[in-house]
Design brief:
The structure is a single chain. The chain is mostly helical and 489 residues long. Among the domains are: 85 residues, no CATH class; 240 residues, no CATH class. The chain contains 23 helices and no strands. Helix 10 packs parallel to helix 20. The longest helix is centred in the C-terminal third of the chain and has 30 residues. The protein is globular and about 70 Å long.
Length: 489
């Protein structure tokens, strides 16, 4: 008889208590519709289950979709309730991320991602600091087409980083992790939140943010792929330029010069051989998608040539399938992509209906009332909101759960308190990725790199906090000034 796999008892009990307490015990607040409060009960229980890892996030999301469909909290009609429950699957942004994850398989299947990393090291790798920058630039290069930040930082860049550290005999087992491995591991990780903030397609939750901003502003602000990339270009590059230096200062490596690193990288490239047709095709597809995602045809030929980002993702994937780079089995077996589409659809669906039913507006009003009594300038209240939002990530093991739970209410409250909508939208959007840096569980990339044992817990948290402070200052100052130049606020 096969062993049965049940949900974890204690986290399951806690999650159910959250649902039943909100639904049956806590009175519906004045100004809130019962249906909205009951949906919030399901939503809160779902977020609790995700944080406490009752089951995989996809399985939890299935239960949430089922609960919405069965209880009819969004619609009195049984058929309407089911259609509401599965409405998230019609969201184009969700498919954009799922398709992009499928497309990014081309990086690993053809080894193009590794080739890019080793190329960068041949150019910048003559010093430990240079190797750090090479890792950062490598990740930045592939970030626009790698929406799984875990796959990018943990699956592509981290093995390169470990290979370099091992070549210098730097490891926990030898007690030599501080030779070079600790520094490179911290750069490897702290690059990940910055690159994730720079493109809509650099991490899965970013399209959710775009959707939440559009919902909160009645679609008055609909951030395109190109607008997002342009907005975070300057603050992102500044953060990437400063971060390796800060990590170097906080965790100085014993080895400062690495004259053998470029040689090591060249040897790896020689082992790989010249770029083959498959790699060239993948690179061409990525360039093609970026060309359309950035809106270049529309810039040159006019608005009639504007394309949809999700349609271009379908085109890119189709080319990879037709050319044989990816097989249909590759697509079907990409559990990460299908899992992301599933849980993303559930969370977007609940967030959308919480907004439609007025719960988000009510919560935002409560936050607004609390801050309004302080009589502060809009900039000060906006900073308070951003800092609370940012550092509450200490209590979350999932950026998606954090964003779904807090983004819409904090954004709406900030606008009501006088903050320029686009300024606050971009600041919270950037914070949603940058907040990953503070803990060793803040995103999926963190445990991958932390478990390689180059960095102690104390060093990880100390470095992450310092980097987070610098990043948020860069986002507020450099970002705010850059967005003003662009006319975003």
């Amino acid at each position: 008889m096969n062993d049965l796999s049940f949900p974890k008892p204690l986290p399951t009990t806690i999650s159910l208590l959250v649902v039943f307490s909100i639904w049956f015990v806590i009175p519906v607040p004045e100004g809130v519709e019962p249906s909205a409060w009951h949906l919030f009960a399901i939503f809160a229980g779902t977020i609790t289950a995700i944080i406490s890892k009752v089951m995989p996030i996809g399985a939890v999301s299935l239960l949430a979709i089922t609960a919405v469909a069965i209880t009819g909290v969004t619609n009195d009609s049984p058929k309407g309730a089911v259609l509401d429950a599965i409405s998230g699957f019609s969201n184009g942004l969700i498919w954009l991320i799922g398709l992009s994850i499928m497309i990014s398989q081309g990086l690993t299947k053809t080894n193009l991602g590794k080739r890019i990393g080793y190329y960068m090291i041949t150019f910048f790798g003559k010093s430990t600091l240079g190797v750090g920058y090479a890792l950062s630039i490598s990740e930045l290069t592939i970030a626009p087409v790698t929406p799984s930040n875990t796959a990018r930082g943990g699956g592509i860049i981290h093995p390169i980083m470990k290979s370099i550290a091992n070549s210098f005999k730097s490891s926990k087992e030898l007690g030599t992790e501080n030779k070079i491995g600790r520094y490179l591991a911290l750069v490897n990780y702290n690059t990940n939140p910055i690159t994730s903030a720079m493109f809509v397609t650099a991490t899965a939750p970013n399209p959710l943010i775009v959707s939440l901003i559009a919902d909160a502003t009645n679609s008055n602000i609909s951030i395109t792929w190109g607008q997002w990339a342009l907005a975070f270009l300057v603050p992102g590059l500044v953060a990437l330029a400063i971060m390796p230096l800060v990590v170097y200062w906080l965790n100085p490596p014993e080895i400062k010069k690495t004259p053998d690193a470029p040689k090591f990288a060249k040897e790896k490239l020689q082992e790989m051989g010249p770029m083959n047709l498959a790699e060239k095709l993948v690179l061409s597809v990525f360039v093609l998608m970026l060309f359309f995602w950035a809106g270049i045809p529309a810039m040159i030929l006019g608005a009639d040539y504007q394309t949809n980002t999700t349609a271009i993702a379908f085109l890119g994937l189709s080319i990879l399938i037709v050319t044989g780079i990816l097989s249909w089995d590759d697509i079907l077996n990409n559990k990460t992509a299908w899992d992301t589409i599933f849980w993303f659809s559930a969370l977007v669906m609940m967030a959308t209906f919480l907004n439609k039913l007025g719960l988000t507006a009510w919560f935002a009003q409560e936050i607004q009332n609390s801050l309004e009594s302080l009589g502060l300038h809009w900039f000060t209240t906006a900073m308070i909101l951003v800092l609370i939002y940012f550092y509450s990530h200490y209590f979350f093991a999932s950026t998606t759960a954090h964003i779904t739970a807090m983004f819409a209410a904090f954004f709406s409250a900030g606008i009501a308190l006088g903050a320029p909508p686009m300024f606050l939208a971009l600041l919270l959007a950037g914070s949603s990725s940058l907040m990953m840096s503070i803990t060793h569980y803040g995103t999926g990339t963190a445990p991958v790199i932390f478990s390689s044992n180059y960095v102690t817990l104390e060093q990880w948290w100390k470095t992450g906090f310092v980097v987070s402070v610098i990043n948020i200052i860069i986002m507020i100052t450099v970002g705010g000034f850059w967005w003003k130049i662009l006319g975003f606020w």
